[in-house]
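Quick review question:
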C-alpha cells in the first residue's frame, strides 16, 4: 500500500506532496533526483527497503526535510549539500554502506535533534561544528571508523543552559 500525504489548500489545483512515508515496502533501485521537485516535501521515510547507489545531492535543496534512509544499501558519501537543509530535524542513514568523512557542513543543521549514522563505513574526524548544534539531542555514530575529540564539555554546557 502506497501512502502519499497531500496538503490540500483552499484550491484543489494547489495540492502538494508533503510526506512520503514508504518504510518496509521492499522498494528497490536508486533514489531519484526528481524528489527535489517536491519543494514542499517535509518527510521522506524510505527505511528498510533495498535502495542502492548514492544519496542525491539535491536532497539538500529541501530545507524542511525529515529524512530517514536507514537500512538500505546506499553507498557513496554524505553530500556536503545536506548542510543546506537548515530546518532538517531528523537525519538517519544508519545501516547502509556510506563511506568517506562527515562533511563539516553538517554543522549548518541548526535545528537537528537526531543524527543517526551508525553502522556505515564513515572515516575521519567528527567535525567540530556538529557540537555547536544546540538542538542536537541524540547522535549515534558507532560502528564506523570515526576519530577525534567528542568535545563533551560543549555538549554538557549546552544541556545545562536549557
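Suggested answer, residue by residue:
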Amino acid at each position: 500500500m502506497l501512502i502519499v500525504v497531500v496538503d490540500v489548500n483552499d484550491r484543489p489545483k494547489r495540492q502538494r506532496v508533503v510526506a512520503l512515508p514508504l518504510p518496509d515496502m521492499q522498494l528497490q533501485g536508486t533514489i531519484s533526483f526528481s524528489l527535489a521537485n517536491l519543494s514542499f516535501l517535509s518527510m521522506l521515510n524510505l527505511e528498510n527497503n533495498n535502495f542502492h547507489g548514492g544519496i542525491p545531492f539535491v536532497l539538500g535543496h529541501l530545507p524542511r526535510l525529515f529524512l530517514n534512509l536507514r537500512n538500505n544499501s546506499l553507498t557513496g558519501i554524505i553530500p556536503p549539500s545536506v548542510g543546506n537543509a537548515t530546518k532538517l530535524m531528523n537525519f538517519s542513514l544508519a545501516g547502509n554502506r556510506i563511506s568517506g568523512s562527515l562533511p563539516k557542513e553538517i554543522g549548518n543543521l541548526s535545528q537537528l535533534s537526531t543524527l543517526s549514522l551508525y553502522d556505515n563505513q564513515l572515516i575521519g574526524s567528527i567535525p567540530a561544528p556538529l557540537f555547536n548544534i544546540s538542538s542536537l539531542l541524540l547522535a549515534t555514530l558507532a560502528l564506523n571508523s570515526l576519530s577525534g575529540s567528542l568535545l563533551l564539555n560543549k555538549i554538557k554546557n549546552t544541556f545545562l543552559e536549557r
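Why it works: Helices lie at 152-161. The chain has one domain: 5-161.
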